[in-house]
Write a structure and sequence with these properties.
This protein is mainly alpha-helical and 97 residues long. Helix content is 86%, strand content 0%. It has a single domain, classed as Methane Monooxygenase Hydroxylase, Chain G, domain 1, CATH 1.20.58.
Length: 97
């Protein structure tokens, strides 16, 4: 479990960088590639969070609340970036008929 938390942080940072690239992209092909990569990363994060949900419940009682809090923060960040991704996608799609 301790290795999954840093892995999720790495994937979230990758999504941040991909969203920046997506925002500054100038052609449809780059937009499509960025969107696909971002969606794959969200799927990967979802799988990691599912695994973390299981592992948090197996934590000792003394550490469970702290682990649950960390997981909830990660889920909040994921939701934030999903909304941001949807915003960029909806803003970019009218650009290409």
């Amino acid at each position: 479990m301790d290795s999954l938390f840093p892995q999720t942080s790495v994937v979230i940072r990758e999504i941040q960088n991909d969203l920046l690239a997506f925002e500054s992209s100038q052609d449809h092909e780059t937009d499509t590639n960025c969107t696909n990569h971002i969606n794959n990363q969200f799927q990967r994060l979802s799988e990691m969070c599912d695994r973390l949900d299981i592992l948090v419940n197996k934590e000792p009682v003394q550490r469970r609340a702290q682990s649950r809090q960390r997981l909830n923060e990660i889920k909040y960040d994921i939701r934030h970036y999903q909304v941001r991704s949807l915003f960029y996608t909806s803003r970019i799609n009218p650009r290409y008929p």
